[in-house]
Amino acid sequence: MRHVIALDVGGTGMKAALVAEDGTLLHQARRPTGRERGAQAVVTAILDFAADLREHGRAEYGQGAVAAGVVVPGIVDAAAGIAVYAANLGWKDLPLRDLLSERLDGLPVALNHDVRAGGLAEGRIGAGNGADRFLFLPLGTGIAGAIGIEGRIEAGAHGYAGEIGHIVVRPGGRECGCGQRGCLEAYASAGAISRTWAAASGDPAADAAACARAVEAGDLAAIEVWREAIDALADGLVTGLTLLDPRMLVIGGGLAEAGDTLFGPLRAAVEARITFQKLPLIVPAALGDTAGCLGAGLLAWDLISVEVSA
């Protein structure tokens, strides 16, 4: 059976799959990224994982993959195949596409940004399917975004489009890892809520999921922490929808697992803030943590279709 290799490289773990042409996940596997061992060790882990996946495909399906897709966090130059910068993985100007292709004996390889790849998957086969304009927003340790337009994801002139987490929603506020103050990510990401709730609850191990449970139980301190995050998120989303006019907002990431505890007040807060803007549908992502891996697979298949048409 024809298939491609798909790799989604995260800060702590890698998700991988062999993906059929119709998007079916034929085989899935996970491994730690191993960033504590340094940037070179991470690269070696990626290359080894891809090679093992190719061998699995040969053994299981009688043929190797026809292409590979790899998606990574940070700044990515997809056209040049360069992983430009990733603070949590320790690399800079890494020619990952060429390194992976060389390890796979010249196999065509697509390299892209993890969130944009997740947005591609949600747009084609997930919650955004059928929407001509959508904004995909995973709320995890940080906040990034993907702008979906007519079946493709807009990367921007320099590959930075969609970084909604660094819209300043509280000028002069909390310091953000990007160097600004008051960024959306510093208030409404799962990481930010975890830090705020840990301080408010006095439990250093408390996280955003625990805060959501406390909200559901009626804890007043948790309700205040949650309200602050929802208000910041709504402010950022209104800025985004004012600029982009999406038909749909697709919210994913770990925070989306809070369900109506998140989506009920968020929809109300966005609606309360708009004036002339059109209120988009605000829906949970459908693909969960497989979105990036599926997106990597779609990018690999796209690469094959481009080569065939050429």
Unreliable segments (pLDDT under 50, ≥5 consecutive)? none
Number of helices: 9
**N/C terminus separation:** 24 Å
Principal-axis shape equals globular
Question: What is the H/E order?
Answer: EEEHEEEEHEHEEEHHHHEHEH
Task: Using brief descriptors, characterize the structure shown.
41% helix; five-stranded mixed beta sheet; alpha/beta; 13 strands; 9 helices; 310 residues
Written overview of the protein:
By secondary structure, the protein is α/β, with parallel strands linked by helices. Helices cover 41% and strands 22% of the residues. The chain is built from 9 helices and 13 strands. The strands form 3 sheets. A 5-stranded mixed sheet has the order 3-2-1-4-8, sandwiched between helices. Strand 1 and strand 2 form a beta hairpin. Helix 5 runs antiparallel to helix 7. The protein starts with a strand and ends with a helix.
Summarize this structure briefly.
This protein has helices at 39-61, 96-103, 114-125, 185-188, 190-201, 208-216, 220-244, 260-273, 291-309, and strands spanning 3-9, 13-20, 25-32, 68-72, 75-77, 82-86, 91-94, 109-113, 133-138, 146-149, 152-154, 248-252, 281-284. The protein has 310 residues and is an alpha/beta fold. Strands 3-2-1-4-8 form a five-stranded mixed beta sheet, sandwiched between helices. A five-stranded mixed beta sheet has the order 11-10-9-12-13, with helices on both faces. A three-stranded antiparallel beta sheet has the order 5-6-7, with no helix packed on it.
Topology (elements, then pairings):
Blueprint: E1 3-9, E2 13-20, E3 25-32, H1 39-61, E4 68-72, E5 75-77, E6 82-86, E7 91-94, H2 96-103, E8 109-113, H3 114-125, E9 133-138, E10 146-149, E11 152-154, H4 185-188, H5 190-201, H6 208-216, H7 220-244, E12 248-252, H8 260-273, E13 281-284, H9 291-309
Parallel strand pairs: 1-4, 4-8, 9-12, 12-13
Antiparallel strand pairs: 1-2, 2-3, 5-6, 6-7, 9-10, 10-11
